[in-house]
Amino acid sequence: MGFFTAARQGRKDDAELGKGLWRRAHDRFHRGLDRYHQVLEGVEDEQLYGELVEIANQLAGLSGRVREICVEAQRRSPSEGLDIPHALSGVHRSLSKAGNSLAATAEAAAMLRLAVGPVPVGAASVWRRAETVFEQVADAERLLSES
């Protein structure tokens, strides 16, 4: 992404996500996704790499959903600070958990990358962590639609 493209995207993000709570939740998720993709660069086992890429693709599919949640939350409860609006506290909690779980998923992938010899169960541990991310994003969507 070029400098001007990044600057335009930053202004668009400021307009849609604000500079507070919802922007931070959105950015935390994207940092976790970037971290996961960085881990992929060092995987030498082709079978394991294939499994981890499949997980990466599914996690990347959540990116648009997380953005939609954060944009709608910002529309309903604009945030320029770190105060959590009571009406959307559950949404924020689920998004925070999703960001943390995504970081844990990247960590699990990194541990597999560092494993010596073949990994007998493949990426099962990474799948389990990724499933938690899917559930938490779905929970945030559900809570947003209920409020």
Mean pLDDT comes to 89
Low-confidence stretches: none
Major sheet: none
**Class by helix and strand content?**
mainly alpha
Helix content: over 70%
Organism: Arthrobacter sp. K5
Protein name: HPt domain-containing protein
Task: Considering the chains and any ligands shown, give keywords for the structure.
147 residues, mainly alpha, 5 helices, 78% helix, elongated, HPt domain-containing protein
Tell me briefly what this model is.
The chain is mainly α and 147 residues long. It has helices spanning 3-17, 21-40, 46-76, 89-113, 124-146.
Architecture overview:
The chain has 147 residues and is mainly α. Helices cover 78% and strands 0% of the residues. The protein is built from five helices and no strands. The protein has helices spanning 3-17, 21-40, 46-76, 89-113, 124-146. Helix 2 (21-40) runs antiparallel to helix 3, helix 2 (21-40) runs parallel beside helix 4 (89-113) and helix 3 packs antiparallel against helix 4. This is HPt domain-containing protein. It comes from Arthrobacter sp. K5.
What topology does this entry show?
Blueprint: H1 3-17, H2 21-40, H3 46-76, H4 89-113, H5 124-146
Helix pairs in contact: 2-3, 2-4, 3-4, 3-5, 4-5
